[in-house]
């Protein structure tokens, strides 16, 4: 357990930074285990709304079942994101968006808030669950990120099962790509259109008070070959630190990269803001500073959580103490009791 002892302000070239000085104190009381997931912040059409909500609810329950069995936050976020990657409704793993050449390029990150260990992959083509490959990068290499051919070679070297890339492409995605491939726009216009769809992610805190995050995506439809957004970048698409909390971001990747959104949210929390206020302030700043829209899910070490977005919709769900919360539209927060 971390107890704040005192706060001091320091002047770094005119920038005042408040620093918390921590004293570690052991405590036997179990922390409240929580998992929160999102299925992407974008203009989710009505015909995908129910499936999107059902998908995040199932993924949140999957992640929480790991925590309930005594599993770690890291295990929980991997399990939840794998469920989303396996669901063709979402843009990650199966159901991923296609680039300008009609190819799949997948990105993912996972991070352990206890040690700050992180693993990421980008532009991988034939891996059904890139979040698990990202975890392997974290645990089996001295690196944080592997990309493209190198990531696939690593996957092969450790025996990760590959799949034919075409099996990751849904009929719906192929049809939408064919419809819009001649429509020349920038990535911002693509993101803001009804036919763009986005990232998935999860955050969790376990009974030991450790936090973790994971984020996975197929990117944005019609992106340039080799384009990498925020999702696999530490501090942008996700960040986890036991001292402050865990975040997974979603939205316009280039905007999220510019403001390092995940780390920005946690910096507000470190300054004393609530998880919800920190998220709202950061999303508002991104909108005002670089005209970017998006969303974020956040959990603190104490179990406080938030799901916030500035897009039209974001499918999200959270489970704490056998209570399921979920929503899709702004200010929507529905409660459902889970069976014991």
From TrEMBL:
Gene3D superfamilies referenced in this protein's UniProt entry, alphabetically: (Glycosyl)asparaginase
InterPro entries, per the entry: ASRGL1_meta, Ntn_hydrolases_N, Peptidase_T2
Site (Cleavage): 198-199
Gene Ontology cellular component terms for the protein in this record: cytoplasm
Iron is among the record's keywords: no
Positions with a binding annotation for substrate: 227-230, 250-253
Catalytic activity: L-asparagine + H2O = L-aspartate + NH4(+); Cleavage of a beta-linked Asp residue from the N-terminus of a polypeptide
Keywords in alphabetical order: Autocatalytic cleavage, Hydrolase, Protease
Record-listed E.C. numbers: 3.4.19.5, 3.5.1.1
Gene Ontology annotations of biological process type: L-asparagine catabolic process via L-aspartate; proteolysis
Enzyme class: hydrolase
GO terms for MF: asparaginase activity; beta-aspartyl-peptidase activity
Entry keyword annotation includes Hydrolase: yes
Active-site residues annotated for this sequence: 199 (nucleophile)
PANTHER family documented for this protein: ISOASPARTYL PEPTIDASE_L-ASPARAGINASE (PTHR10188:SF35), L-ASPARAGINASE (PTHR10188)
Family: Belongs to the Ntn-hydrolase family.
UniProt protein name: Isoaspartyl peptidase/L-asparaginase
């Amino acid at each position: 357990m971390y107890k704040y002892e005192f706060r001091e302000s320091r002047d770094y070239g005119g920038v005042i930074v408040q620093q918390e000085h921590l004293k570690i104190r052991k405590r036997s009381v179990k922390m409240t285990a929580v998992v929160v997931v999102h299925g992407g912040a974008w203009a989710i059409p009505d015909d995908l709304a129910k499936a999107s909500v059902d998908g995040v609810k199932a993924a949140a329950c999957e992640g929480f079942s790991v925590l309930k069995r005594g599993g770690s936050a890291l295990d929980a976020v991997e399990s939840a994101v794998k469920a989303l990657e396996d669901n063709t409704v979402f843009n990650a793993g199966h159901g991923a968006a296609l680039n300008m050449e009609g190819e799949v390029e997948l990105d993912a990150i996972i991070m352990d808030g206890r040690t700050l260990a992180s693993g990421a992959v980008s532009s991988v083509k034939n891996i059904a669950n890139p979040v698990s490959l990202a975890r392997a990068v974290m645990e089996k290499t001295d690196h944080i990120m592997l990309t493209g051919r190198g990531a696939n070679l690593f996957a092969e070297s450790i025996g990760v099962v590959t799949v034919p890339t075409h099996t990751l492409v849904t009929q719906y995605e192929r049809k939408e790509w064919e419809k819009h491939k001649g429509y020349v726009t920038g990535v911002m216009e693509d993101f803001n259109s009804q036919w763009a769809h986005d990232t998935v992610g999860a955050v969790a805190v376990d009974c030991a008070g450790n936090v973790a995050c994971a984020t996975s995506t197929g990117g944005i439809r019609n992106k340039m070959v080799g384009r990498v957004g925020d999702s696999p970048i530490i501090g942008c698409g996700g960040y986890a630190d036991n001292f402050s909390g865990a975040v997974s971001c979603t939205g316009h990747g280039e905007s999220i990269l510019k403001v390092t959104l995940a780390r920005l949210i946690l910096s507000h929390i470190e300054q004393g803001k609530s998880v919800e206020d920190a998220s709202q302030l950061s999303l508002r700043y991104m909108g005002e500073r670089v005209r970017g829209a998006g969303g974020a899910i956040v959990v603190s070490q104490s179990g406080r959580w938030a799901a916030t977005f500035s897009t039209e919709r974001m499918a999200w769900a959270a489970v704490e103490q056998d209570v399921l919360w979920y929503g899709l539209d702004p200010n929507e927060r529905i409660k459902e009791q889970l069976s014991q």
